[in-house]
Structures are given as C-alpha cells and as structure tokens.
Design goal:
CATH superfamily of the largest domain: P-loop containing nucleotide triphosphate hydrolases
Helix content: 40-55%
Strand order of the largest sheet: 2-1-3-4-5
CATH architecture of the largest domain: 3-Layer(aba) Sandwich
Number of strands: 12
Length: 528
C-alpha cells in the first residue's frame, strides 16, 4: 500500500480526503498507477483518455482537481486547459500538468494555458500526492478564508487571525516545494553526469558517424533511416566485438524524436549479478544491508530517452524475466519501494553472441528475444567491407591528431595495402588501436608498414617464437568446436600476458570480464 500523504496545517482542519480527482492520460499504465495511488490516499478518482472526454466529465462532475497529461490524441493538454479556462463553471478547477518536458518554454506554455503546477515524468507517487494535497488544501483554504472574511465583515472582528492562518499554510507549501525541488535537482544532475560520461567515451571511438561507402554499410544506414519514424520500437543490434554496435545505437537515438533526451549505455556483462536488480531498477534506503541512500536505476535515468543494453546475451536469467515485464508494462518498482514508477524508455540491445543458440540451450528467454528484436540490425565485420578501411583510417588519423595536437601524418601506400589485407579480428576498435599506436611510432613522418603492429604478430613476438610454420600449425590444430577453441586462445593469451588478465584481454580484443568467466569455466584462476 502506498503511504498516505496527508499533512495537517497547524490549527486549521484541511482534511481533503474524499476530494474528486480527474486523471486525464492516454497511457493505460499511467492511469493504473495514478488511480491506485490516489484511491489509496483516500481520493475519489475519475479517468479520461483524451481532452474532449475530460471536458465532458469536468462539465458534468465538477472535480476538485485535474491531473492533465500534455501529449494526447486529438486536442493536447494545453488546449484542453484553455477550454476549461474559457468556461465560467470550470475555470476555478486547479489543473496540474503531467509532462515529460520540463524545458522553460513548455512550462511557461502550461502556466499560460491556465495550469497551476506541473509534475515531470517519470513521476514519483509521493511527489504527485504532495502536490495534489497542497493545491487541494490551498483551494479549500481560499474558500474558507472567503467565508471567514464575509463573517468578519459582518461581525466587524479583526482580520489578524485569518492572516495568521494564511501565513501558516504558505509556509507549509514552501517546505513541501523545497523538498520536491531538491529531489528533482538531484535526479537531473545524475542524469546529466551519466549522459556526459557516456558521450565522452563514445566520442573516443569516433561516435560522430559511421564512415564508409561499402554496399554492406550502406545497407545498414538505409535500415537506420527506416527507424526515424518509429522512436518507440525496440532494436536488437548483432555483430562481432568492435564493429560499432554502440555507435549504431547512438545513431538510432540521434535520429529519433528522443534525441534531446538522455542516452544511457550499460554493459550487461560487467554488472555484478547480485547488484543487477538494484542497478537497473533502483532501490530505497534501508532496502538491504549497505543501502544507505536511495539509488536511481538506469530505467529511471533513461526516462524519455534511450537505454542501450550492450552484451544482452550475458544478462542473468532471473533479470531477463524482470526486464521483459518492464518492457511490457512500462513500470519499474525499486527494491524496498511501496510505489512504482512509470517510465518511457526505448530499449536498444546489442550482442556479439548467437542468441539463436542461446535460445535453444535455454540461456535466453524466447519471449524477451522477440520483444527486443522488433527491428534487427546486423553489423558486418571490417573484413567484409575492406573498401572502407582507407576512409576509416583517415578519419581516425584526424581524430587522433586533434587529440595529440599534431598534424595528421599520411599513410604510405604499402602500409595501406597491408591494412586492407589484414583480417581485423577486433574490427573497427582494433583499427583504431593500430592507427593510434602507428602515429606514435612514426614520429611525425609517414606511417610505414613497420609502424603497424597487429594483434597476432604482437602475440607471436611476445612469446619469443617468430616461426611462421609454428603459427600456422597452431591454427590448424585448433579444434572445430568454438567453445574449445575459445578456451585454448584465452589460455594462450593469459600465458603470454604472464597471468595479467587486462593484458590478455587486450591481446584478444575482448572485455577482461569475459576472460575471467572463461577461466572460471575451465576451473582456472589468473594470477592477477
């Protein structure tokens, strides 16, 4: 049950329980959460799914307050409020807007239309109840003071007592509003900080756009164009590590109607299993040992924008079911909370693993897969678009040169030929590493073949064995079973790195957490 939010002004009986609230929203999930919270708080609730229906109900039932969504089919919330104001019988009804946009222009338009307050989505039920109660009490107080003034005028008694009561009510409203504004400010700072950090990391890998003219890449870009008019559709991006799945996710976000809202990127493989639910959905202070303060979850941070779930194939099975429910209902419940939060989040998921195999093996939920894969984008590996390597290399040269504050060097023809003939198991990310290292080694001169250090060659050099026949024999002797081959390569990388997992992960071009998991599966423990 939601906590009832009924405060008493000193010496004044302002019990507003039983007041009639009209909730106007075209989203069923919003109506469900709001109606339950209001009924639990003792209010009588009426609902409408559009502005015209709201006007009809308000004209016939005269609610004490209206909660009015801005974006609705037909006439929007602003026009609905203006029509209420134009009617002499309804213009005194307080209107509180529900909006996902707290920009100054939108807020001013709401006040100009006749609203007295606004609540920004995703809303907290405590905030909505506090604001409703404040405005109901203010309206009730105004009516009682009007009656009192009439009595005083007739009796000739002093107005000091009425003025004192009005001051007490104003002080109470100021305290409530100050607490609410502090919470809103804290959440906004968290959102902006997370968005800024994610943007900086993405820019580091050339996130300003996909570079290339190959047919395979152009096909991907045409698919992205199809998504511009469907900014609520979930997307599943597949492709090898390093192909730019996050870049595609950001491109989808930037081309959507959510482009001005937050983009939150999460690597599911790095989220500790025991903290996963708290990280995604949030928790309340005291919900468990160590929960010393409220924690805002990723879904709440991404409200109105996009949540990018990288390596979705590594998400624990129990969390998959909870994720599916959030995607279906649009509601999250933080751990230890008695209230739920309505969230509007577009989910873009990505994976480098074969989810079809994971479905067959029962490691991934089939219903979640189809919910995520409403639209799929398959990214080609760099070896399948070699004609893009010159453009990509030049783009990365210019970026690295700008960061180093030097002139961008040229790449010698034989060095470019070598780049285009390389297989790039680490894809675009590996190309970036090779280009950046070559810029340091060339010492402001042209980049030559000897300045290019490739992953396989580095591993051979570090092992102290440069015999070409041995390298070839090693590849031929790898088992055809993919899992066994991966285990052999991981063990070899760890040996070459002398037990340093971070170094081994760099050699393999993968996240170090994957190295830890592979070693754990084989019963091995790294030295560092």
């Amino acid at each position: 049950m939601a906590t009832k939010c009924l405060m008493k002004t000193a010496e004044i009986d302002l019990d507003v329980r039983g007041a009639r609230i009209l909730v106007v929203d075209d989203t069923p999930a919003n109506l469900t959460v709001l109606c339950q919270a209001l009924e639990d708080a003792g209010y009588r609730v009426m609902v409408a799914g559009d502005g015209l229906t709201a006007l009809e109900i308000a004209g016939g039932s005269a609610p004490d307050l209206i909660l009015l969504d801005v974006m609705m089919p037909g006439i929007d919330g602003y026009e609905t409020c203006r029509r209420l104001q134009a009617d002499e019988q309804m213009r005194e009804i307080p209107v509180v807007f529900l909006t996902a946009n707290d920009e100054t222009v939108a807020v001013v338009e709401g006040f100009q239309a006749g609203g007295i307050d606004y609540v920004v989505k995703p809303f907290r039920k405590e905030e909505v109840l506090a604001r409703i109660q404040t405005h109901l009490e203010r309206a009730l107080l105004a009516r009682r003071l009007t009656e009192k003034l009439q009595e005083l005028a007739e009796s000739g008694l002093s107005l000091e007592r009425a003025h004192e009561q009005l001051q007490q009510s104003a002080q109470q409203m100021e305290r409530v509003n100050a607490q609410l504004q502090e919470e809103v400010g804290r959440r906004r700072q968290l959102t902006q900080r997370l968005s800024h950090l994610a943007h900086e990391e993405a820019e580091r890998w050339g996130i300003d756009g996909f570079i290339g003219r190959s047919p395979t890449l152009q096909k991907v870009l045409r698919e992205l164009d199809l998504l511009q008019s469907a900014d609520g559709t979930s997307v599943l991006i597949t492709g090898e590590s390093g192909t730019g799945k996050e870049l595609i996710a950001r491109a989808v976000h930037a081309r959507s109607g959510r482009c001005d809202e937050t983009f939150v990127a999460v690597n599911c493989a790095t989220v500790p299993r025991e903290l996963a639910e708290s990280v995604f959905f949030g928790h309340r202070k005291g919900a468990f040992t160590g929960a010393e303060r409220d924690q805002v979850g990723y879904f709440e941070l991404a409200h109105g924008g996009t949540l990018f779930l990288d390596e979705i194939g590594d998400m624990p099975a129990d969390l998959q079911s909870k994720l599916l429910r959030v995607l279906e209902d649009g509601v999250v419940t933080p751990i230890g909370a008695t209230e739920s939060l309505v969230v509007d989040v577009r989910v873009i998921a990505a994976t480098h693993v074969d989810l079809s195999a994971a479905l067959r093996e029962g490691r991934f939920r089939e219903d979640l897969y189809y919910r995520l894969a409403r639209f799929t984008v398959e990214l080609p590996p760099l070896r399948q678009r070699r004609e893009d390597i010159p453009l990509l290399s030049q783009h990365m040269l210019e970026q690295c040169a700008a960061q180093m504050k030097i002139a961008a060097p040229v790449i010698a023809p034989d060095a470019m030929e070598r780049l285009q003939s390389y297989e790039f198991p680490g894809n675009v990310r590996e190309l970036r590493n090779i280009i950046e290292r070559a810029m340091i080694l060339c010492d402001s001169g042209p980049i030559q073949t000897e300045h290019l250090q490739f992953r396989q060659e580095t591993a051979v050099i570090e092992s102290g064995d440069t015999r070409e026949s041995d390298a070839g024999a090693g590849l031929e002797n790898l088992p055809l079973n993919l899992g066994e081959a991966e285990a052999i390569l991981v063990r070899r990388a760890v040996d070459l790195a002398e037990g340093n997992v971070s170094k081994a992960a760099r050699l393999l071009g993968i996240d170090r957490n994957k190295v830890y998991r592979k070693l754990a599966q084989d019963g091995e423990r790294p030295t560092s």
